[in-house]
Amino acid sequence: MFGSIDPQLLLASLMVAATPIMLAAIGELVVERAGVLNLGVEGMMITGSVIGFIAAIKTGNPWIGFAAAALGGAALSLLFGVLTQFLLSNQVATGLALTLFGLGLAALLGQGYLGVKAPVFPDWHIPLLGDIPIIGPIVFQHDPMVYLGLGIVAGVWWFLKKSRAGLVLRAVGENHEAAHALGYNVIRVRMLAIMFGGACAGLGGAYLSIVRVPTYAAGLTAEMGWIALAIVVFAGWKPGRLLLGAYLFGGVTALQLNLQAAGLSLLDVLTIVALVAAVVVVSVGFIQNRAFTAKMLWWAASLCIAAAFFSFYKWLGWVFNETLWLSSSPYIATIFVLVIMSSGGAPGSLGKSFHASR
Amino acid sequence: MTEPLVKLEGLTKAYPGVVANSDVSFDIQAGEVHALLGENGAGKSTLVKTIYGLVKPDSGTMTLDGQPFTPAEPRAARAAGIAMVFQHFSLFEALNVAENVALGMENPPPMNTLAQRIKEVSETYGLPLDPTRIVGDLSAGERQRVEIIRCLLQDPKVLIMDEPTSVLTPQEVDILFETLRKLKSEGTAILYISHKLEEIRALCDHATVLRLGEVVGTCVPKETSAREMAELMVGGTLHVPERETGETGETLMKISGLSAASPAEFGTSLKDITLEIRAGDVIGIGGVAGNGQDELLGALSGEIRVGAGQVAFMGRDIGQLAPDARRSLGICAAPEERMGHAAAPDMSLTENAALTGRKRKALTSNGFIDWGKTRNFAEEIIERFDVRTPGAGNAARSLSGGNLQKFVIGREILQDPQILIVNQPTWGVDASAAAAIRQALLDLAAKGAGVIVISQDLDELMEISDQFAALNEGRLSKPRPAQGLTVEEIGLMLGGAHDMEVAHVD
User: Fold this and answer.
1) B334-380 pLDDT, tens per residue?
2) What is the DSSP letter of B343?
3) From the list A167, A177, A345, which residue is nearest B103 (CB)?
4) Which GO molecular function annotation, any one, does this entry have (chain B) (predicted)?
5) CATH tag for A7-264+328-341 (out of 3.30.70, 1.20.1740, 1.10.20, 1.10.3470)
6) Strand order in the sheet with B82-85
7) Do the Cβ atoms of A175 and B93 come within 8 Å?
8) Is B481 domain-assigned?
9) Are B436 and B239 in contact (CB under 8 A)?
10) What residues in B contact A182, CB-CB < 8 Å?
11) Are residues B418 and B293 in the same domain?
């Protein structure tokens, strides 16, 4: 029934579609764990995308493009860092200003590059693993940045969980006054975290312009930086959940593009998804509890009602803008799922300015 | 006399407008518990921060073990063998015990080894502690253990303790003192800051007294009375609160069967509390921290609404009234946490005065705040309660804890309440200011108001209250006349001797 949609290709493009948002979000996660709220992710992403693109075109080497994008993102975040950490400006206002600044800067820098094609960044056919049937093409035949992104997420997880420096970073984010009293340099830790966040956002942006699209266009990031921010919060500041959120976003993005191409009705798909989810809820719940609980029946009933609503709406034949809803579906689905499973635990000093005298 | 372990000579540190330390010199021997005494703002904290490397002195020298000692940062001080337990805990609530300990160490071992060592050391010193617990879930006493163990794991030569007992129960104080005596016998020098002079008499070998940044005297606490020490600190005679045992009048407030769930995540629910407050009565409520003190204050002030018929004022049911409505009736309250609960830290004293005084002092006209009147009210508080600040325009945050406490209590008392509920009225306040606050509470009661004092300082409660009751796990014991209560009886009440309560009910 999914006709022209190839599940193997769909799953493969999921990993590619998820990579930019994953990169931007993991950087912001580190920044927020250090107690800083940088709302300028979108601006740093788009700046990274244009700087990386220009560097890649000029040198013909995508790797240099990525390096330049990371440096550009870090440089922009350095501006944010100096303003908020040394001049104690308000983090929310400064972050918003950074986004506006980044968008303007990118539009200016990218003037001569609209529609130019990026140099080819070849996929990496991993020997042996890439030859496994089905799994090979899905997981092991992507460009190196996909794996670098996964490596950064794993590295951040290890850093925060296991390393001494990660413990200090968490301590600074949790209670900056206590960290200062113990003799840790709060400002230095935060500046490093901010720059790491900027570099990651820049990489994410460059991945869009060099690999994903692969050309430079105005408004290339399509507000992805904001979703990255939301993913960090709803993932409860945990790298594992962040990976899940990013892949969910990538998955729905890839799916909706395929749906658009296949010309399937979104309402039909939603009806089926809701019914399948209802069956999954009931069966998984039954296996776990060995009985039907009121909570899971409530969920299943809600999903069935939703399915009925979608098919009823289709039957009515009212106006329904397929493209609009499909394009927004990754954003809605990601927020929806992460809100349901979100758990609190914001860093204690998040968004608060620190000065040693106070 | 042997060579002193720590030798301070001529330490001076000036901040803009104030000299925190001026030519401070004294010695600490190995195996000595040395007390540092002084009022709020006498320069004790600056001095210990200097030793710990957080503050650089303008002039003067320190020697440790005969070597010149100039720590550039706490790291260097820790490496040299200085450890410090902070007045306001330097802990991270979202992290577990082992992680908190690791953060205070120079070269912590791997987590598993560290957890094992925390267990060993904590048991050796009688401070049992589970290294995997999240610090946010621990009681004040347990949190302090984390700080102490963090210090002990580094085998310190000098241990600095800044007001370690202000949040501890009497039992926890006893445990702490045993630990400190054990450390002392192992040759550790301890620099001990406290306002509780009886504790200093029980524990310390020598004392240095600071006043306005200068050393004004030294004494041997065991041979000096608490009163003499207090007078050294104040530089004059100490006023001890006087109580006129007046007749108590009509019943003002009646609490019957008060039960309320706690709004806080780790809070204690109130269970079936019954109490009667008469005019002219001072009711002292003791109990270990976290047994429902905050909730009781909230239920009486109106922050927590309770069911019908549980709280009545002059025969009127007020359980559903909000704090503002209760204030209009004459029920004022001062909660324990000064910064952020009793006062808004970043607002000026004038604005803070308006926050609770608006209704009773008629500080508004036609819905607008009358700033002139409000300023006068704030200045009246500052003058009457000796709040030390350059002016009413200063932010609440800029005041020291004791000064802000005087302001907060004064603000409520000057509104002439009929019922005043205070929680920890003299927490972190020096001896003379504490005496002034207690006197003001007694004066208020003498004028015919009912006063409820919730406190963990038993000496304070015995000094001012007519009736004493204890909170335990959200239950209140039956109040008993405070005069003639023995320490054993109080201990039984605090420990939650519910059988006694049952006997009364029958």
Assistant:
1) 988 887 888 998 899 999 999 998 888 888 888 899 999 999 999 99
2) B
3) A167
4) ATP binding
5) 1.10.3470
6) B82-85, B158-162, B189-193, B33-37, B206-211, B214-219
7) yes
8) yes
9) yes
10) 74, 90, 103-104
11) yes
